[in-house]
Design goal:
single chain, 645 residues, alpha/beta, seven-stranded mixed β-barrel, six-stranded mixed β-sheet, binds alpha-methylisocitric acid, binds iron/sulfur cluster
């Protein structure tokens, strides 16, 4: 049987399990990445595992999410992360060096390797032919400690890209088309593997835009072949020696297939407030635009911003529009600075932000009330921008730049001849803002500020529970709903008691108080519960408030594992209709949970309604053992023989 790329990489990294879709497999992890918003927890967890130094081939800690430093908390986090990197043998990419996914693609990614990152957009490096997966911080800590990463063997979907992209069509339009067809839950349990003659028109950064937003499909990962384009990109990064060709075998077998004819695509736009509400830009044209943000790990590469500069050159941003541009990395910013493109962007009236996530995660540049914000980022969930009633649309850089000039949503094809950008033969490589680990620092101290609180500890899973439904949600609840980010809340990421107060803050501001008072509770949800980010705070904070079980129609992958990691029981309805029967405030009872988990036969009694619902789980034996141990940290400590330390 001809192997696809995904199966080739998995075969080389398989340490446990069988490659049967849906069955759990254990993968050896070669590289890890963390960022500051998830990294503090990940390194506290790693420290608690009692392992002196990372066991991966390479681990990198990035400072990119919250670089605002409105108070000491944030700066303390950065200092802690730098001390943890030195102590544990980790590369440290300093604030200002760029967004983790962009920098990893440029400087560290290697085709054929596995990468686990405590950020949902880690699959960006799939653009280089890596198998790159996003996970919660605790899973990444376990991988740094040398444990395999466990995930369900994915189905592999072959997305065949045909022909040359139509004028003004870029990677963003291609992934928006995939989202339009498959929706935000269409990728759950799957890896999207791109092939076809259209690949020869897509440079690595364009491919990375596509793999980046595979996260919005809920996919386990997305991957491109490693081919001559990949070799060229790596050579331009001065890393040709790390290049390995990885192509699917002729006649490679896939679980599903999809064809996209690139020459038939039109510029696309995702309407508020979901990345899959995709229509043609031409159908949304004319709406007034108040803000345009060009940046994020999706669209901030050299080629992206060179095209933006060419569109803006000699023109001025519309008087009613605030245009902000955040280059993805220092390498991109330096290149634009030295070839004059940055000056064109500045001259047009754009406001230049540092190379960081910034507005994408609500750290600054919140739009005005009710404003329309066009963004090149990947998520337009309600309130994520920092303004509850803002309307965020997702577009390509070309559509964003065209609209910034006209002040209304504008199809870039109106600009005439498309802009063509060649990647440089050699990028301006400068790793001076990346501090490599040294052998001497293992005895050094972790520097903890007063806002960095110890990890909370929890009791093990009860065999019997009786709790109130403290919240009932609808479908597609995101981790931004469960645990918002943004400039006010991100500084609390290292302080679980404080951050937990914001749990479900935008959905029901009374939730945290009610949960604490109830002394235990259950959440009921719809489809794709917990989609979006990898932030383990969306599981850890509810657990801290006393949530013991979450009962839903279906889960997003990373969030379900995060619930398990912190000992929260993730259950699904056997009969989806039962969802409608439960109301917030009902009291649910479960008995014989431990046996029920093993047999996968559980019942929930609704004491308020006098009805009983069969429920099940999608857990492996290992995940059940983690729940019984009281969470992944306890489980790993037992395995490493470091419990009690
Ligand atoms: C995001 O884009 O939502 C984030 C912020 O990068 C998160 C990580 C986090 O919450 O720290 C993600 O995508 O995993
Ligand atoms: Fe940063 Fe936004 Fe990318 Fe998340 S999606 S890593 S917040 S740029």
């Amino acid at each position: 049987m001809g192997l696809n790329i995904t199966r080739k990489i998995i075969t080389q990294h398989l340490v446990e399990g069988e490659m049967i879709p849906g069955k759990e497999i254990g993968l050896k992890i070669d590289q890890t990445l963390t960022q500051d918003a998830t990294g503090t927890m990940a390194y506290l967890e790693f420290a608690a595992m009692g392992i002196p130094r990372v066991k991966t081939e390479l681990s990198v800690s990035y400072i990119d999410h919250n670089t605002l430093q409105t108070g000491f908390e944030n700066a303390d986090d950065h200092r802690f992360l730098q001390s943890a990197a030195a102590k544990f043998g980790i590369y440290f990419s300093r604030a200002g060096n760029g967004i983790c996914h962009q920098v990893h693609l440029e400087r560290f990614g290697i085709p054929g390797k596995t990468l686990l990152g405590s950020d949902s957009h880690t699959p960006t490096c799939g653009g280089l032919g890596m198998l790159a997966i996003g996970a919660g911080g605790l899973d990444v800590a376990a991988a740094m400690a040398g444990f395999p990463y466990y995930v369900q063997m994915p189905e592999v979907v072959n997305i065949r890209l045909h022909g040359r992209p139509a004028p003004w069509i870029s990677g963003k339009d291609i992934i928006l088309e995939v989202l339009r067809r498959l929706t935000v839950k269409g990728g759950v349990g799957k890896v999207m593997e791109y092939t076809g003659d259209g690949l020869s028109y897509l440079e690595v950064p364009e491919r990375a835009t596509i793999t980046n937003m595979g996260a919005e499909l809920g996919a386990t990962s997305s991957v491109f072949p490693s081919d001559r384009m990949t070799r060229r990109f790596m050579a331009a990064q001065g890393r040709e020696e790390a290049f390995v060709e990885i192509l699917p075998d002729p006649g490679a077998v896939y679980d599903e297939e999809m064809d996209i004819y690139l020459n038939e695509l039109e510029p696309l736009i995702a309407l508020p407030h979901m990345p899959d509400r995709v229509v043609r830009v031409s159908d949304a044209e004319g709406s007034k635009v108040d803000q345009v943000f060009i940046g994020s790990c999706t669209n901030s590469s050299y080629a992206n911003l060179m095209r933006v500069a060419a569109i803006l050159k000699g023109k001025t941003v519309h008087p009613d529009v605030s245009l902000v541009v955040a280059p993805g990395s220092r390498q991109v910013l330096c290149s634009l600075a030295s070839n004059g493109a940055l000056a064109e962007i500045i001259r047009s009236g754009a406001r230049i932000l540092e190379c960081a996530c910034g507005p994408c995660v609500g750290v600054g540049q919140a739009p005005s009330s009710g404003a329309v914000s066009l963004r090149t980022s990947n998520r337009n969930f309600e309130g994520r921008s920092g303004t509850a009633d803002a309307n965020v649309y997702l577009v390509s850089c070309e559509t964003a730049a065209a609209s910034a000039l006209t002040g209304q949503i504008t199809d870039p094809r109106r600009l005439g001849e498309p802009v063509m950008i060649e990647l440089p033969e050699v990028f301006s490589v400068d790793d001076s803002m990346i501090i490599p680990p040294s052998d001497r620092d293992t005895c050094s101290r972790l520097v903890m500020g007063p806002n960095i609180k110890p990890l909370p500890s929890f009791q093990t899973l009860e065999d019997h529970m009786e709790h109130e439904v403290l919240l009932k949600t609808g479908d597609n609840i995101t981790t931004d709903h469960i645990m918002p980010a943004g400039a006010k809340i991100l500084p609390l990421r290292s302080n679980i008691p404080a951050i937990s107060r914001h749990t479900f803050g935008s959905v029901d501001p009374t939730f945290a108080e009610r949960a604490l008072n109830a002394g235990g509770g259950i959440i009921v949800g719809g489809e794709n519960y917990g989609q979006g980010s990898s932030r383990e705070h969306a599981a850890l904070a509810p657990r801290y408030l006393g949530i013991r079980a979450v009962l839903v129609k279906s889960f997003a992958r990373i969030h379900m594992q995060n619930l398990v990691n912190f000992g929260v029981l993730p259950l699904v309805f056997v009969d989806r209709e039962d969802y409608a029967d439960i109301e917030q405030g009902d009291v649910l009872r479960m008995a014989g949970i431990i046996k029920g988990l093993e047999a996968n036969e559980l019942e929930v009694k609704n004491l308020s309604k006098g009805r009983t619902y069969p429920v099940k789980h999608n857990l492996s034996k290992r995940q059940i053992d983690i729940l019984l141990a009281g969470g992944l940290l306890e489980y790993v400590k037992k395995q490493a023989g470091t419990e009690g330390r």
